[in-house]
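Self-study notes.
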Amino acid sequence: MRVLQIGHSPDADDLFMYYAIAFGWVSHENIAFHNLALDIQTLNQKALQGTLDISAISFSVYPLLFQEQCLLRTGVSFGKGYGPKLIKKKGKSLKRNFKVALSGAHTTNAMLFKIAYPNARIVYKNFLDIENAVLSGEVDAGVLIHESILQYDENLEIEREICEIWCALNKQDLPLPLGGMCIRRSLPLSVAIICEQMLTKAVKIALENKSLLSKMLEERNLIRVDSNQLETYLNLYANEDSISLSQTQLNAINALFKIGYDYKIYTQILSVEDCLIPLEYADFRNS
């Protein structure tokens, strides 16, 4: 039995898409997973370091690690007219060099924010601490992610949606690429293909058994929102579009990579099609 280390965030969509495996609904005779729930910036850092076999990541970090990691087609989260929110205290005017709290240097929202607000003074915090940092006056503004976008203090208001920045930069009607998954290239290709199949099946089964799985996650206190908010959040980020990358989603990722190159965040332009596991290997191997 090969046991692989897999990292995902503790937010509801990642838990929902993975836990069909944790609950034993999806399994394999030769492969098992040991899962770790970590905040997205820690996952990005671990992916850069190659310390996990499989990890959830921000799409924006992938060009920095593509030589060591392949992208998986499944477990993806996109924003279609919604996503992270730049918030501030109601009535507050932000100066050009306002102080802002972001959830991590390698997150997609951080990349887009830094392009739109090059003079902002950035501090990085755990995403759970950003709202209080704004309320306390420690920072002038903050970017809320995950379930925090659903409900926040009544003394706060939205300054700008990150998806607005995305739309202005890509100039196309494309969804905002937020989170995906990667797998170490050093794993045998046959193992990587099986892992992608298992994770894809887990997302499918989760969606087919949405009510039951949601109830089980709630009963085990694995999520931070109530049942109504969970339903809303899963509809946004863990849905039919999360099962496997579509051509529109591939186009969106390529647009993100090009924006990063144009703004000198990346040293070369990647084509996402070249970053995926070559599934034809399985057919060739078994032919």
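Second protein, same conventions, sequence then structure:
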Amino acid sequence: MIRTRIAALAAVAVTALALGASPASAAPGDTLNVCGSTLTPAGWVDVQWWNSAGCGSGFNPNSKQIKDLTGFPVGTQVNACGSTWPPAGWTIVSSYYSSGCRYSAVPSLNHNAWTLKRTS
């Protein structure tokens, strides 16, 4: 009986944590760490890539941090990886190389990151 209660409480806690960290409940600027195979939701951008045993194995970076850009005021600038297109209302103002934005096993020094500006 006690084991059943503990298991039920653990399931509720895990569900609450998962729901609390979902992109639907995020505030502007919030970040979330996900596996690289997870699609970046609308209004969000990738801001960093790395390898994590929790997301599989291999040489390709398989984990990423995503950032919510919805709700920022016009004129705000943020840095983002070039692995996703900027959301509507955001414009690329410059591009550059960032080691934190390497999302391929084949490294290069080509521009892979952007400075984005909220324009509308």
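Instructor comment on the second fold: The beta strands are 31-35, 44-50, 63-68, 77-81, 90-96, 113-118.
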